[in-house]
Write the structure tokens for this entry.
Amino acid sequence: MAEIVYPPVIVALKTFWKYLGLQFTFTGEAHIPRKGGAILAMNHIGYLDFALIGTAALPANRLVRFMAKKEIFDNKLAGPLMRGMHHINVDRNNGSASFVAALRALRSGEIIGIFPEGTISKSFEIKDLKSGAVRLAMGSNVPVIPAVIWGSQRIWTKGVKRDLRRKNVPIYVTFGEPLHFEKGSDVEAGEKILREKLIALLHEVQESYPDSHIGQRWAPLRLGGTAPAPLN
């Protein structure tokens, strides 16, 4: 498909990241297939996650098509950009349409980005997962690439005023080994496997993160932070 909107948006985002002074550490890019369909199943801790994870996937020469809620597409500014980048509109009142659109994109060789938690985790821990990522993988016969991000919650997250000052925040993104789910296999078991992998990857990233979590609003209770307690 023609890429008219995505390239200039990437340039604008890279300029924005430079303005913020973000310090990137990207690992596991080799797990992203260089061609063919795949699903990026990602944790969700901040409003910039999709753009930052999309940036991390660029070394693989792949453009990620993110599944995003309908409200973003309804926005007068963001909507045209989302459609121009061929992201997928998720209407929670008509989920079948977005599922079919994602299946079609996967079968045509696209990489689809999904936040299987469904919304931002206020505790910054991995919440229970929705079944969409596993069901899409089964229906399209493509791998699921677990991906975790850490640090983005320090810039802009739910319930906390955004901070767009230049603070040289470390941003870590890690892509895990592909997971394969055969058609007709147990969906709940697949969700459990995916969630356990996301938790393991997140803990690895947090252990290597250079800034202390102790006493920080952007860190979970488990690490000595003051974020809200997990709901599940």
Summary: The mean pLDDT is 96. Strands lie at 23-27, 38-42, 64-69, 88-90, 111-114, 144-150, 170-175. Helices lie at 6-20, 49-56, 70-74, 78-84, 95-107, 132-140, 187-208.
